[in-house]
Amino acid sequence: MSALIVTAIGSVLRLINLGQPHAIIFDETYYPKDALSLIKFGVEHGTVDGSDQKLLDYSGSIANLNIFTDVGSFIAHPPLGKWIIALGELTLGPNPTGWRISVAIIGILSVLLTVRIARRLTRSNLIGTLAGLFVALDGVHLVMSRTGLLDIILGFFVLVAFGFYLLDRDQLRQRMATQIQEHGIARTATLWGPTFGMRPMRWAAALSLGLACGVKWSGIYFALAFIAMSLVWDVSTRKVIGVERPWRATLLRSAPSTVAISFAIMFVTYVATWTGWFLSDEGWDRNWAMGTGVIAALSSLLHYHSEMWNFHVGLTTEHAYASNPWSWPLQARPTSFYWADIKDHSKGCEVDYCSSEVLALGNPIIWWAGILAVVYQVWRWLGKRDWRSAAVLVGIAAGWLPWMLYLNRTIFTFYTVVFMPFLAIALAMSAAALLGPMDGTPERRKRGAIAIGVLVAAVILAAWWFYPVWTGEVIPYEQWNLRMWMPTWI
């Protein structure tokens, strides 16, 4: 029940007035139009001059929408995320609500997934509920759920993959416990241990990671981190059942097949996301390789990818809202997606000067308390050998640390949305620790409950305070200015 309540909260915040502002905000100038092009042509096409305004003014069907050129367009990210955006446009039309609805649903499902994953990870309803609530009330997650961009879709598939790895771990341990209880473990098997057999949940996780890479290439960081984490869990399982050489057994028995099968599934899944490009002759670079057939098509796709790689590593254009990854936990430089000055008493403005902004700013209480939570979880991992702490830290590290390699690139704080659910789980686990052990004194648990209540109240109050600048509400300029706690938020 608590999972449904938290998800309902997240749903209301993400769906209400989804079509506002009625504008193409930030990188919506790319992905919704690419999605419409996929519907019409199967591949991305270039657009005519003034296409943004023409799209906003249009009220007809997608079939009659004429904002595209006859030439295939170079794109910086794979097609899957744009196909998902296209589903909303097919349902509700080529308008802001249409290109945001699929993303909003993905964001809502991410809230529910966070609750269930945290519950399975910790076996605690309290932690699951808190984690889901923190995701529901976080600003960067909310803004990205209400905008036709790709990052929340990437984060969703990453969460799904993590959940499948958890299921794989639990199922394997249950299977091993049953096997040993029924048949025992032969003395000759104690050196290497039993074989683990088929791992359907692990392969489902690989499929999810392939889909993540089909949205944005940064999914590969999570693939590497999660596969390594899963193999470490195999070592732990072998230790529990009494295998004498768990590391060697894992490296020789589990690692080769796991890596080979996982990356094979990911590769096939990723290539499948380019089906529209394969089936068309109009895609950018489609006929780069001479000849026809599979080899020529794959050669052209490989060349396309080399051009995409060159684009990404060479992206050093200055941007007013570019940020350093070291500042992301502080939310020191959030990205402004939309800004409007209103000085003519229009759009519901009842004073002389109003403003409307969509600012991808994380809930400050969640993120600033989250810094302390991460420190605490590092201590739990190193000092207490708590595998649950290590698991959430892997999720955070995979989404954050790789960007340290690209400090000269143009990157943005809203990339944090991909690992934000793991931060929420870390904060929920740390908050629950304030209660102390189950057999703790009533006074200790009372103080802990009060502390959790204060944290939750502060998160809710901050969400209420910043909601207008997360959703582009028209508010007096003085009210907007009161919400700019740091000069770098402007």
Ordered list of secondary-structure elements with their pairings:
Elements: H1 2-15, H2 31-41, E1 45-47, H3 51-57, E2 68-72, H4 80-92, H5 96-122, H6 125-136, H7 139-145, H8 151-183, H9 200-213, H10 219-240, H11 246-272, H12 275-279, H13 294-313, E3 335-342, E4 354-360, H14 364-384, H15 387-400, H16 420-433, H17 442-471, E5 474-476, H18 477-482
Antiparallel strand pairs: 1-2, 3-4, 4-5
Helix pairs in contact: 1-5, 1-6, 2-4, 4-5, 5-6, 5-7, 5-8, 5-16, 6-16, 7-17, 8-9, 8-10, 9-10, 9-11, 10-11, 10-15, 14-15, 14-16, 15-16
The strand count comes to: 5
**Largest sheet, described in full?**
3 strands, antiparallel
Calculate the terminal CA-CA distance, rounded to whole Å.
Answer: 40 Å
Shape category: globular
Structural class: mainly alpha
List the secondary-structure elements in sequence, H or E: HHEHEHHHHHHHHHHEEHHHHEH
Largest beta sheet: what is the strand line-up? 3-4-5
Oligomeric composition of the shown chains: single chain
Discrete helix count: 18
Mean pLDDT: 93
Low-confidence stretches: none
Report helical residue fraction.
55-70%
Q: Tell me what portion of residues adopts beta-strand conformation.
A: 5-15%
Question: Radius of gyration from the CA trace?
Answer: 24 Å
Written account of the structure:
The structure is a single chain. The chain has a domain of about 170 residues. It is built from 18 helices and five strands. Helix 5 crosses helix 7 and helix 9 packs antiparallel against helix 10. It is globular and about 75 Å long. Strands 3-4-5 form a three-stranded antiparallel beta sheet. A two-stranded antiparallel sheet has the order 1-2. The chain is mainly alpha-helical and about 500 residues long.
